[in-house]
Amino acid sequence: MKTLVIGPGGREHALAVALARDPAVSEVHVAPGNPGMAAIATLHPVDPMDGAAVADLAVSLAADLVVIGPEAPLTTGVADAVRARGIACFGPTAEAAVLEGSKAFAKDVMAAAGVPTGMAHLCTTPEEVVAALDAFGAPYVVKDDGLAAGKGVVVTNDRDEAIAHAAGCERVVIEEFLDGPEVSLFAITDGKTVYPLQPAQDFKRIHDNDEGPNTGGMGAYTPLPWAPADLVEDVLARVLQPTVDELARRGTSFQGLLYAGLALTKRGTKVIEFNARFGDPETQALLSLLDSGLGSLLLAAAQGRLDEVPAPRWKAGAAVAVVMASAGYPESSSKGDEITGIADAEALGATVLHAGTVSSSDGALVTAGGRVLAVVGQGVDVASARKLAYAGVGAIKFDGAQFRSDIAGDVVATSSTTGATSTTEQGV
Ligand code: AMP
Ligand code: GLY
Predict the structure, then answer these.
(1) Domain extent at residue 57
(2) Average pLDDT of every residue of the chain
(3) Is omega for the bond preceding 199 within 30 degrees of 0, making it cis?
(4) Residue 99 falls within a domain, yes or no?
């Protein structure tokens, strides 16, 4: 099977690595990709947002499967453009990707499907905003009703800050604050059959102890030793399958990766958000533990015959991904800082997945974006995976590098002090 992955970042690097490992996959191509992928894939300088160019590339490669990584091309119909040329594409239609693109649409689908989520008001005037904020009280949750790559959300106790954020949005969703640990649960679906992946947890804020602004994600780990044993089964039955069924009922069948961002509140598991693509950096941790073929799985989903292939299998143990970001992130990012030590990190056993890197004209590897690398460690448990990931981070240097030192730290501390493997009190 010839495969083509669309996207530039760490998630696409993880997808390319997992595809390259699948014996059913003969070729891995990526557009545009990044220097980290060059060893395992052929890179093509094609703009992921240009549907015609992506489809042309897929045709010229005679690709059997195209996998679209980021949300932006999905919401503008790049998957539709590929399918229109008769090539199987893993990723929803533009119409179905609105599940991620519009918070208001997602709320409407959840209401119709009976999926548990926070109460919310869609507001279009400052008066409505203030009324909704005061109705829910602090902490305030204010979401831009457009695609904002995880950065359109402000959660704050400061009423003025909440009002100011809302003022910058055309349509804004004000939501009830959901208290409890967050879980990312992904599922592969062809629009009918739904195969959940292992639960993961990501760390959204830039600084340790969840301080500072939201980012795209500064680290992740999987599985979650503290999660309730029936979590996946429960979310499949009450969230994933009803959402997929409701979208099909509306004639906007969802095929691709359905990402449920969940809060495990005292009043049950509730959906914080849906995304229409693999999460970043959860995917970097998750796919390192995948023990079955990714290509065959995604192709079956893209061809509407997921029920004909087995559900994904996972290696025992755990994986931890720690993101290294450039100076200034998330407000800005520093470019052109030389990166050294990747080979040393790999020699220690860590896997280094590139996101914002480029090769400079003199052949050095330099930073080229906010999130630069994800360093993944695998081990028999979260503690050993974490140790390896941080050993890898310690070996890598670039000016102004930022990383959190507490990724998966609480879960390790909890298990080592109490031996507990099943507390639902574990926070992020
Ligand atoms: P979203 O883009 O909806 O995923 O929001 C980004 C982050 O903001 C989430 O991962 C949560 O950490 C936080 N968040 C969003 N909505 C809520 C909510 N209703 N209650 C608490 N935290 C939230
Ligand atoms: N890790 C969060 C996201 O991918 O949206």
Answers:
(1) 2-91
(2) 94
(3) no
(4) no
